[in-house]
Amino acid sequence: MFNATDIYSFFSYLICYIGYAYIFKKLGKKMWKAFIPIYNTYELAKGAKRELDGRIQVVLNCIMAISDLVIRFLPESSLVYYIISLFRGTVAICVIVYQARICSGLCEVFGKNKYWVVIWLLFEGLTSLYWGLSKKIQPVITLEEENAADVSGVHVEEIEEGLTINIRERTAMEFFKKKVLLKDLHLTIPKGHLVLLLGGSGAGKTTFLNAVTGYEKADATVLLNGHDLYKEYESMKYDVGFVPQQDLMRPNDTVLMTLEDAAKLRLPGNIDKKERKKRVQEVLEGFGLSMLANNLVEKLSGGQRKRLSIAMEFISDPSLFILDEPDSGLDGVVARGLFEKLRAIADSGKIVIVITHTPDRVADLFDDVIVLAKDVDRTGRLAYYGSLEDARKFFKKDSMEHVLLAVNQKEEGGEGRANEFVKRYTKQMKKAG
């Protein structure tokens, strides 16, 4: 039999769900989704531009529901009951935190003061009902602004000397459904170009690079100097160099040993020992490491370790060179010297793509910038590609750091204008044909 508490809970949830239903209607969502327990929280979070928080909240709510079910069948005096109750209390605190984040997102979408977050947490049912039924409370973002940018329909033509990228889509299964991670990225990078890859957290930079290199294939065509990286991956993987943010060197090896090991791994097996040794010496000299050949890796300075990391990948003389924050932890002077070396590598006829979070101190060395941003569907899109000078005009910003702030989400401290710029650039691509 149901007790008074169960009946009260039922009507509280019913009032809350009715409120959700009308809020969903205002957000352009199906009202019936509001009456699916737990899942409705995820839909509310999506409407609040807090999808990730919504996923976490759903998991937490599931844990709470399972804990409640288990507790019902345990004697209150048992140790297991005490442990699960304590665990449930911890999860409940997390639920409140993420509920507050979702409510904060709703306040932004509806243009309301953040004090509503406290009211929502204290009186969720009545607050959701008021927000849903009140004509005074309406989203401040129009439906047009909420829609993601259309697909450009562009397919860039192959260039013989350089990188041609046509990424139609990159998907993955996420939270029991297909998630589009990247969409509609089309560009060409001529050889000899040093390119900045810019984008906020979760914008798809790593996914984009993995798709370009063929490490994680997408629905795409990627050509490097006329060769298909996907179809010819085994023979071309040595033509692509990737330097991660964290180096993978053994501290007790010397610089020379490190490069010799890299040569064995990175150079084709048909190269004889003499040629391999010659290549190691060329790289040592080219990166200013000859005087340090017998030094242990652990004794190198930060700048020297970075140069060695780059040299390890450059040993195979790749046509496409990708670096993830090579200047991380380096001061301005050392970082400048490192990027000047990358500029020289590009000038030798290579394509160099770099991720850095401090682009403005070396902005004059770059030819172009790729700006990735999340559209309203949280899909990585191309918000801009071209020269840095034109990028400043396009975004109406005086620096690359300000460009990054413009496309970053508000919860990340940015302006939250990513969708706006994605739309504008997509239209620009359509006009260009």
How does this structure look, described?
The protein is an alpha/beta fold. The chain folds into 2 domains: 4-146, no CATH class; 162-432, 3-Layer(aba) Sandwich (Rossmann fold), CATH 3.40.50.300. Helices cover 48% and strands 16% of the residues. It has 16 helices and 10 strands. Strand 9 and strand 10 form a beta hairpin. It is globular. The N and C termini lie far apart (68 Å).
Q: CATH topology of the largest domain, anyone?
A: Rossmann fold
The percent range for helix content is 40-55%
Mean residue pLDDT: 87
CATH level-4 homologous superfamily of the largest domain: P-loop containing nucleotide triphosphate hydrolases
Largest sheet, described in full? 6 strands, mixed
SSE order, one letter for each helix or strand = HHHHHHHEEEHEEHEHHHEHEEEHHH
Q: What structural keywords apply?
A:
Rossmann fold, 433 residues, alpha/beta, single chain, four-stranded antiparallel β-sheet, six-stranded mixed β-sheet, 48% helix, 2 domains, 16% strand
